[in-house]
Amino acid sequence: MDSIRVVGGRALRGEVAVLGAKNAALKHMVATLLAPGDHELDNVPGILDVDIMGQVLDHVGASCRRDGTTLAVSVPDELNPEAPLELVRKMRASILILGALLARLGEARVALPGGDDFGSRPIDMHLEGLRGMGAEFELNHGVLEARAPDGLFGTEVFLEFPSVGATENLLLAAVLAQGTTVIGNAAREPELADLAVYLGEMGAKIEGAGTSTIHVHGVPHLTAARHRVVPDRLEAGTYALAGAISGGEVTIRNCVPDHLRMELRKMAAAGCEVSVDESSFTVRGPDRADPIDFATLPYPGFHTDMHPQMVAFLATAGGTSIITENVYASRFRYIGELNRMGADIHADGQHVVIRGVDHLSGCEVDGCDIRAGAALVLAGLRADGETLVTEAHHIDRGYDGFVPKLAALGAVIERL
Ligand code: UD1
Fold this sequence. Notes:
Helices cover 31% and strands 25% of the residues. The termini are close together. Strand 8 (136-140) and strand 9 form a beta hairpin. It has 14 helices and 24 strands. The site of uridine-diphosphate-N-acetylglucosamine has 19 residues, from helix 1, helix 5 and helix 6.
């Protein structure tokens, strides 16, 4: 079992650079399938999820080659319309292969996705939108079989909720469909806007990506392109909170601070000193955080994937904070682990009540998903003594060099 051992009490100081966003790079990898030829993605993080997506692409017939942070993807004319069960199960993002394969081949067979355990995470919006574009689905033995017998055609889809994945699946399907697709109540996440930029570089005609209404004018074919992946705001935000929770001061480089506007606003409200430049920002943590309330929401609201790290920070605040989780039905498994460290946190329905305690004390905790694992390491930076975060492979799914980057900022941390 892989674990991360951290000894608390050291204030982190210095600079850390972030890489491209996991939640963009994975989608860009799927998007390569839309155009035969040699693609090149730059600023790609060396994380487990990218490796898994690479294996999915390999299975479909494309080949990936990594050289540092550059990922070359070679896409042949012929593709295999099947995504393998054992890989798709490991990562929810692989459901995006559905839109891309339907667009390219008119058929796809994709096992239903797994991923983090955040309560039930259906794909009804993906399927409803694709159905509107002419796709038909059948579920056989856990495998979703999709066909578009007459091809995909443009239509108007209005999403019930601005789902990131559903918007992306529809975008991938629409770029090669006949006619114009309008996606209403679309997700506005920067990673999705970056996907649209990349598709545009491949020759797609997209207007309004990054706003709630996206128009896609289908084109007959796309060509391979080169693209630099947008910086990872979640990696940036996590290191900012690592500095803050330790009472230190950390500068995050190679990022887009504007993509973290709400998160930085809440850090400031909790007593952090925040200063922002064009592609970097600095966060200086208080001795003890002030309590705050916030709700997670689709972008530009507070990102649900920053919620566990923020809760860890507020665990030792000088008062009670209340957080409302609006994106997932349940995302609270890490709370029991923080309480093992001495925190006083209760979840009730969508709400989390955090009564700030004087101190946390290190112990063995289970890092049950990417952000929970990161949040527990952050708590370990603040805690007395030694914290052992087990199941550290979850952190590897989303962070490239998490332990060495924290060590370079002065943390006493090692991988076991
Ligand atoms: C993406 C991110 C994830 C992030 C989430 C919200 C990737 C690989 N993952 O996930 O890290 O936490 O956005 O910012 O980019 N839903 C439905 N039906 C659907 C689709 C979604 O009910 O058809 C629900 C989900 O169960 C969830 C909510 O909508 O409760 C948000 O999901 P969505 O925005 O689709 O997130 P993902 O794209 O899965």
